[in-house]
Design a protein that fits this description.
Layout lengths: L9 E5 L4 H11 L3 E6 L18 H6 L3 E5 L5 H11 L4 E4 L5 H4 L4 H7 L4 E4 L16 H8 L20 H24 L3 E4 L2 H7 L2 H10 L16 E5 L6 E5 L3 H10 L14 H6 L1 H12 L4 H10 L3 E4 L3 H6 L1 H6 L2 E6 L3 E6 L23 H7 L5 H9 L9 H6 L1
Parallel strand pairs: 1-2, 1-4, 2-3, 4-5, 5-6
Antiparallel strand pairs: 7-8, 8-9, 10-11
Helix pairs in contact: 1-7, 6-8, 7-8
Length: 410
C-alpha cells in the first residue's frame, strides 16, 4: 500500500516560470516524483533574473520538491535519454511557448507513441490553436487579456485598472493539478492516457465569471469597486493606528450591523435612517466608512480584529508577507516551515496548504540546483554506468553542477 497519495507517480517537467513548476511542487507535496529538465545552456528563466542561478527566490519557491536532470536536448544522445525517461513516467508537463515542443519532437502525438498511457498537460498563455495561440504572455499580460485587471482597482484611480501580481500563474497551477488528478483517476479506470490543454487566459477569465454573468444577464459592464462590495456595507479596508495599518471588515446582514454598532460602542448608529438596512447602507457607504474609520484610526488593527471577531463579526488584519510568517494561527497550523537550501541556506517557505487527518504527506524538499540530480537519474532510472555518465559529461550531453564550466555558463 502506498505511503503517500501519489507515491509511485513520476512526472517529467519541461516547466519554466511559475505555472508548471508550481504544479509540480503541488504534485510533489502529494508524493509524486518530479523530474525537471534543464541545461546550463537553456535554464529556467527564473534562474536568470538574479546573479546566482542557484539562489533565485522565485525559482526556489516554485520548484520545491523537484529533482533537476541537466541534459542537453540539442545533442542526439541527450534527446535519446529524454525519450528513454519518458517511457518510465506517468505525467508529462510543459509550458513552453508556441511550437517549441513540436520542434523538439516532444509534442503529445510524438510522446504518446513512446508512452501510450501518458498524461500530457500543456499550458500556454492562450492555449493550443486559435488566433492568439502563438502570443507570448506572462501573469500581468494574462490578467489584462482575461478582463481580470479591469476590475482590480479603486473606483477613482486615474487609469481604472491595476495590479501586476501574477494571479493567473498560481490559479492555473492549481486548476492544472485538479485536471491531472482527474486524468489519473480516468487512467486508473480506463487504462487510457489524456491530453490536457489548459489555457492560462481561459483560467483567468473564469475568475470573473460573476462579471460575465452580470453582462450577459443585465447588460451591465462592471467597474472597479476597490475594497467595497456592491451587495454589502460596511465592507472595506479601514485605516488603523500606526503607519499604513489596516483592518478589513465585512458585514452582510442587519443582525450583524446591530451587533457591530454595539461592539464598537456606537449604538446610536442603529437609529440613523441612512443605515437602517442593507440597501441604505450601500447607498451611504462613503459616509458610513468615514464614521467607522474615525473609530478604527485610534486603534491598532489587532485590537479592531479581536473586538469584532469576539462579537462574531468578520474582520481581519491586512497582513504583509512578514506578518503572515509571524502569524500565530499560521504557525499553529504548520503553514510555515523552514528548509535548508544548499546555496541560499535556511529559509522560511509556505508549507503544504492543507491537512488531511490520517493521511501522510512527504516532507517538502528545497528547489534543486541546476543539474543536481543528473547522476542519480542516470544511474537509478536510465541504468547508465558511471563510465558512461562521465563520458557524456565530457561530451556536454549532461550537466555536472560541480564543474566550474557549468557554473560559468549560467
Amino acid at each position: 500500500m502506498s505511503k503517500y497519495p501519489l507515491e509511485g507517480i513520476r512526472v517529467i517537467s519541461f516547466g519554466v516560470g511559475i505555472v508548471i513548476p508550481d504544479l509540480g511542487k503541488t504534485l510533489g507535496q502529494l508524493g509524486a516524483e518530479i523530474i525537471k529538465i534543464e541545461t546550463s545552456t537553456y535554464p529556467d528563466f527564473m534562474r536568470t533574473i538574479v546573479p546566482d542561478p542557484n539562489n533565485s527566490p522565485g525559482f526556489n519557491e516554485s520548484n520545491r520538491n523537484h529533482k533537476c536532470f541537466g541534459v542537453n536536448l540539442t545533442a542526439d544522445r541527450g534527446k535519446e535519454l529524454i525519450l528513454e525517461l519518458i517511457k518510465t513516467v506517468d505525467i508529462f508537463a510543459e509550458n513552453y511557448r508556441g511550437d517549441v515542443m513540436e520542434r523538439l519532437g516532444l509534442d503529445y502525438d510524438s510522446v504518446k507513441k513512446i508512452n501510450p498511457e501518458i498524461i500530457y498537460i500543456s499550458s500556454q498563455g492562450f492555449g493550443k490553436g486559435g488566433p492568439y495561440s502563438a502570443h507570448k504572455g506572462y501573469g500581468p499580460t494574462l490578467c489584462a487579456a482575461s478582463g481580470l485587471i479591469s476590475l482590480w482597482a479603486q473606483p477613482d484611480d486615474e487609469f481604472g485598472c491595476g495590479g501586476t501580481f501574477p494571479h493567473p500563474d498560481n490559479a492555473v497551477s492549481w486548476q492544472g493539478t485538479l485536471a491531472v488528478l482527474g486524468a489519473l483517476d480516468y487512467k486508473r479506470r480506463s487504462g487510457k492516457g489524456q491530453f490536457i490543454d489548459i489555457s492560462q487566459a481561459e483560467v483567468s477569465a473564469a475568475l470573473i465569471g460573476e462579471a460575465m454573468l452580470d453582462y450577459t444577464t443585465n447588460d451591465n459592464v462592471q467597474k472597479p469597486v476597490g475594497n467595497r462590495n456592491p451587495y454589502a456595507s460596511p465592507y472595506n479596508c479601514y485605516r488603523c493606528k500606526g503607519n499604513d495599518q489596516w483592518c478589513a471588515i465585512s458585514l452582510f446582514t442587519n443582525e450583524e450591523w446591530e451587533t457591530f454598532c454595539d461592539a464598537t460602542g456606537h449604538p446610536q448608529w442603529k437609529a440613523d435612517p441612512r443605515f437602517a438596512d442593507t440597501v441604505n447602507r450601500i447607498s451611504y457607504a462613503a459616509e458610513l466608512d468615514v464614521l467607522i474609520e474615525e473609530w478604527t484610526s485610534d486603534q491598532d488593527p489587532s485590537t479592531v480584529m479581536h473586538v469584532l471577531q469576539n462579537a462574531g463579526i468578520a474582520a481581519g488584519i491586512v497582513q504583509r508577507a512578514y506578518d503572515s510568517i509571524l502569524d500565530p494561527h499560521n504557525n499553529w497550523q504548520g503553514n510555515i516551515e523552514e528548509m535548508e537550501h544548499p546555496v541560499s541556506g535556511k529559509r522560511l517557505y509556505p508549507s503544504t496548504p492543507f491537512n488531511m487527518p490520517g493521511m501522510k504527506f512527504p516532507q517538502n524538499s528545497p528547489a534543486p540546483m541546476l543539474g543536481q540530480h543528473t547522476d542519480e537519474i542516470c544511474r537509478d532510472i536510465l541504468n547508465l554506468s558511471d563510465e558512461e555518465i562521465i563520458r557524456l559529461k565530457k561530451e556536454n550531453v549532461l550537466d555536472d553542477p560541480e564543474t566550474k564550466e557549468t557554473a560559468e555558463s549560467c
